User: Fold these one by one.
Assistant:
Number 1:
Amino acid sequence: PATSMEELVSLCKRRGFIFQGSEIYGGLQGFYDYGPLGVELKNNIKAAWWRTNVYERDDMEGLDASIIMHRQVLRHSGHEATFSDPMVDNKKNNKRYRLDHLVKDQKADVIAKVAEAMGQSAENFPAVVAALNANPAQASEALRAAGVRDPFSGEVGEWTEPKPFNMMFKTTIGPVADDESYGYLRPETAQGIFTNFKNVVDSTSRRLPFGIAQIGKAFRNEITPRNFIFRVRELEQMEIEFFCTPGTDEDWHEKWLEARLSWWEAQGVPRSKIEILDVPKEDLAHYSKRTYDLMYDYPTLGHEEIEGIANRSDYDLGSHTKNQSELGLVARVEENLDSIAKLTIPHPETNKPVVPFVIEPSAGVDRAMLAVLSEAFTKETLENGNERIVLKLKPHLAPIKVAVIPLARNKAELVDLARSIKNDLQKLGLGRILLEDSGNIGKAYRRHDEVGTPYCVTVDFDTVGKGEDASLTDTVTIRDRDTLAQERVKISDLSSYLQAKLR
Ligand code: ATP
């Protein structure tokens, strides 16, 4: 695995996985663009998630809802009032920080002092954050007493009392900009699932338990976007809302935890690198009854959230439904006089209308990419003493499945044959097959090691019957990325050989 974020960032830029957004104008903080290889890896991760969670189950449906949503949705979901992070300003230089990030970036002794002032142990950082977020006045005093420094200037700051900062992006809809004509870019894809609950139930005849899966962009105006694609303002999420009968929710919560850990394992992110955080009560999101955060051990950053698995109880459907008072809701919700729909489903035993409970596994695509890249990243010393960087990606995630390389790029005969082999392999539907006719063979191998191409197929003079050994006519060399073994295979066997290896 990678040992630092830096080596990942450098590989991603050098080989075309990820670029800074709006880079030619100096860049825009918190926005990234996925390059030729990044888009393939991202698509492959999303496809793997969809396959496991929609196609390979019998209790799931898919959805792709719109990004901009009616302001009433985000009002009744609770996001207008509570989707905020506490921030503090340094009065000395007007820099603004997210409270927990500010504390996390301090030296160990300062963190210990803050923890102590909050009546917590520094060992349990999530509890420190929860206490800071819950007690603004005490937090402000703790920052002062501990001598918390400004990460930008390095000097002890003069800190304001923490204030909530709403992270939603608001936008004007239509030609008139008045007080009513605005909507929000969704801060989570989940709300599109809740607002379509009735549509999906009515059009598919689903009964409890069942889930709806969605992959899409979400937007958060993070106070301090940072750590490459770990914390961005435009992100992508893979979310499931799994609806179940009240009372069965805790069981389903455990089942989903298991299912999700095993999915990560299949993507090359082992359980041993993921800590399960049972989120402290004080730190739960406004909708949550209980949440497990999967904390992956990122290079340089340490354990940080890659996925949250929340028990959202009947909070969301309960908040968005009409006739709330007749439905025996468990969650405490605000009155809703705007919704025109009753968001219930027949109880599987009594057949009476019930608002189901919801388990939500919510993973970030960007954070998934970072973890997958980090696990695949390998630096090896070869037998000849040379060092190579190789991305040992699972074949189903590799951006390029096979590179077909003519040994000499100025020999039309070799290039034409390589192109025709590429075209044939492309038809197998394995993903991207690349005709690699730039640079010499050594460079091509190095490049494909670094981008994780599982197999290179080389067309040489023997292949076209112009080499030393006539018995090699119509055969090519296949080089294995991980073992470096080279094998001679008949062109006519190539498809079945690669299909078996890349399935
Ligand atoms: P954090 O505490 O790191 O801000 P969160 O608890 O706000 O994350 P959730 O609301 O649980 O995150 O979102 C679900 C998932 O979406 C996260 O596990 C993460 O993978 C992803 N995600 C959330 N915010 C961002 C972001 N700013 N950049 C990239 N991915 C994000």
Number 2:
Amino acid sequence: MSTQPNHQHQLLAQWVTQYRAAAKEGECASYIPALAQKDPNQLAVAIIGTEGHEIKAGDTAELFTLQSVSKVITFILACMDRGLPYVLERVDVEPTGDTFNSIIRLESHQPGKPFNPMINAGAITVSSMLAGHSPQEKVTKILQFLEQIIGKQLSINEEVFESEWHTANRNRALAYYLMDSGFLDCPVEAALEVYLKQCAIEVNVSDLAMIGLVIANDGYHPLLKKQLFPKQVAKLAKALMVTCGMYNASGKFAAFIGLPAKSGVSGAILAAVPGHAGLHSPFPTGCGIGIYGPAIDPIGNSVAGVKLLKQLATEWDMTIF
Ligand code: DON
């Protein structure tokens, strides 16, 4: 296989064209009106390597909300703010096999500790423990952390936030349950505001790829030449992405793709390719991958996005296993 950048770019563009058609097997998330209006046929990918080299293809200018991809970021931030023992006392690191917004295990497993930070119960708990006295302070911290990684200011899509805020009955139920069993560090409405605002942060595929690059590099930003978060936290984040990042499809994703990844109902997928996983690829020292394809499957993963990621991971032999 040629490692010429131009050839890689052509291949990416070819795969985007090929997998765009898979969008018809899914649908845009309909429970958030602003997401339902998206064009399901959009598909975009960006890959950034450790030297800053980027290849991208498709609808790369499109902005979309992080949704559940934000759960990795707030988990990392909470570990930095509170220390790992504090976080792990309140959220476990076990996959569930349940849907992302399931409430069942909060009652069936005492003392009701959320199973992991990648499902809603765990993510709401994590959002509640971020440093800051008000939801606004916590959200500002998240935005500042992302600005450090990406190098530009991001904003919140207020329309997406508002529509989720007024329909968040399941998330409210989860938060009240967590509060009752002592797992929330701030009032229910404050925790929900932080959680739903982090979900509504807008990015493009290059932004996602940059976040993936830093996670792949164990918290070290190879372009800024700066350690942004501890290696131990990055390793835990990657383990959680592998075991829980693609919801109840994480097992199949690990088996057939084999990369730490996190998806969101907006159709976003963030993947981190550590150096050893990219050894035989055009990015032999590792890379970050950002994908966007808003038509999702019933589990919540981008249909075309997963197929595209599988194609490039297989073709370029990118896997942690
Ligand atoms: O909590 C929610 O419903 C959304 N704001 C985030 C969910 C999400 O992205 C789960 N996805 N697969």
